[in-house]
Amino acid sequence: MTETIERLTGETTGAGAGEREKERERTPETALGTYGLTPYIAPLTVPPVLRPAAGDVLRETEVALRPAWVRLHPQLPPTLMWGYDGHVPGPTIEVRRGRRVRIAWTNRIPKDSEYPVTSVEVPLRTDGRPQATTEPGREGVEPNKDVAALPAWSVTHLHGAQTGGGNDGWADNAVGSGDAQLSEYPNDHQAVHLPSGERKIPLLIADRNLDTDEDGRLNGRLLHKTVVVQQRNPETGKPVSAPFTGPYTTVNGRIWPYADVDPAWYRFRLVNASNARIFELVLIAEDGKPVPGAVHQIGSDGGLLPRPVPVDFDAELSALIAAPAERFDLLVDFRGLAGRTLRLVNKGPNQPAGVPDPAGDVPCPPVLEFRVGESCEEDTFELPEVLSGSFRRLTHDIPHGHRLILLTPPPTKGAGGHPEIWEMTEVQDTAGLQLPADGIVQITGPDGTTKTYRRTARTFNDGLGFTIGEGSHEQWSFLNLGPIVHPMHIHLADFQLLGRDAYDVSGFDPAAGGTRTPIRYDAGTTIPLPPNERGHKDVFRVPGSQMLRVMGRFDGAYGRFMYHCHLLEHEDMGMMRPFVVMPPEALKFDHGGAHGGHGEGHTG
């Protein structure tokens, strides 16, 4: 408590403290007066660790969802949130390799509990000013009463492990107050010798916004403020809003905290838990320039990379790009940085690291400050040359099926002003086909062959389209016809990125809902895969006018799963589809083939 008070008053003591305070006064972050909070005065919190007794399915561990009052920043009043066992974020659950754990996610949120987020939609600004979502407060707009009336209806789902469909956290399998979601989780992850104990720290990063009182002062209440990009959609009569992004970045539930670290190796398990913000993270020094050689990525969504990837913030990897739900296992070497102050910042697309970029929706670059101590016990850890000796690249000579998924632009016919997921099936007989036609798309691939596809599903509630034999490999190709970057997430399986291809998508006519001329492969544009995307992943960024090809094996579990865009508002607007994994012997009795259910197996 004393340390926190000293940081607030600026009367810190000890070696280097005065210089740090003077240095803070010189930086752009102190020019954030309109946002009401001072960066780097709250210590980073580390979630508690939960170790279930024996780690055995015969024993059950309850984790209760409860309302909690959390102080996001020392200069804010407490914020009402719903958390796990009263913690935001919830505890880290550690289980020994080779054992399963059973968790009862129990909803202990009272039925009459106040919904902890105020929701508003504000008009689109057309006068050149940054959009209102980059500012706190409601702009005088009344809260959405339907959101305020939402009940405590909760579901918890898992990323990065093979668990049956009944344990996965299916969207509709939510429980009300007083009920529990029972889930079992295996743990077959590889054991490695890496920094541990106090030098292994989870970093859960999320952007947020805050409401203000009638005098314009921050009141601590969470605010979901989005911009109405279309006042009324002619098909639905409802307004169309862009996904949420906010000006305040929280790390482990605190806004712009600091962390005291030793001049030693640290392991950080980082996850982007934002609704929609894609971070471009850079580690900078006191002079605002990137720190080379300190950061190494050793793992991604699905586990360890084959080898460490240096994140030197050069031309090849100028920032650590983190889309919602992407995970990063990082090693940071602070040994040569004793006594220094370093900052992890969000780089705006139009500005250097550490400089505010309101036009690029990054009005507040701060994320996390590292204060490196002067000395510590000798650190004997050495960065390994090989991390996963068992890693093997998936290649096309493995028998596999194919799926084609289109990501459509918001103005597309019948979409209600929102982007959609279209599942496509090849049309074998095109005689008499008149183009353009709603749901019909032609694509000219790298070999110059033009194929015709028809849409078989587009919304979450359309019939089941994909049925997959357990243990089989599949290649899923996501072709983005719009300008929005979609982070696509597939449940259950780990995937490897096979490649990114550029396409000319101008032949797609949103008003017609199909192509007037074929979408064509762009042979003149090469898109290399960055080295940190060459491991196992289950979340992949798909930029506009690109086809992303991924391959994975659907093994280890049966049941109904989901794949979806991980921009939360897109997912909730219907950019989510089901698939079912079943024993391969049962596929011959499945009737999904009539609507494109089975991936065609081949080795090409």
Kindly describe this structure.
This protein is mostly beta strands. It has 3 domains: 105 residues, Cupredoxins -  blue copper proteins (Immunoglobulin-like), CATH 2.60.40; 142 residues, Cupredoxins -  blue copper proteins (Immunoglobulin-like, Sandwich), CATH 2.60.40.420; 196 residues, Immunoglobulin-like, CATH 2.60.40.420. Helix content is 4%, strand content 38%. It has an 8-stranded mixed beta barrel with strand order 24-25-27-26-34-31-36-29. A 7-stranded mixed β-sheet has the order 14-13-9-16-21-18-19, with no helix packed on it. The protein starts with a helix and ends in a 22-residue tail after the last strand.
Number of domains: 3
**Percentage beta strand:** 35-45%
Query: In CATH terms, what is the architecture of the largest domain?
Result: Sandwich
In the sheet with the most strands, the strands line up as 24-25-27-26-34-31-36-29
The biggest beta sheet, please?
8 strands, mixed, barrel
Give the CATH topology of the largest domain: Immunoglobulin-like
Whole-angstrom Rg: 25 Å
What distance lies between the first and last C-alpha atoms, to the nearest angstrom? 63 Å
* Approximate helicity band: under 10%
How many E-type strands? Answer: 38
Low-pLDDT runs: 1-31, 593-597, 600-604
Q: Class by helix and strand content?
A: mainly beta
CATH class of the largest domain: Mainly Beta
Can you tell me the overall shape?
globular
Average the pLDDT over all residues and give the rounded result. Answer: 89
CATH superfamily of the largest domain: Cupredoxins -  blue copper proteins
Please give the count of helices. 4
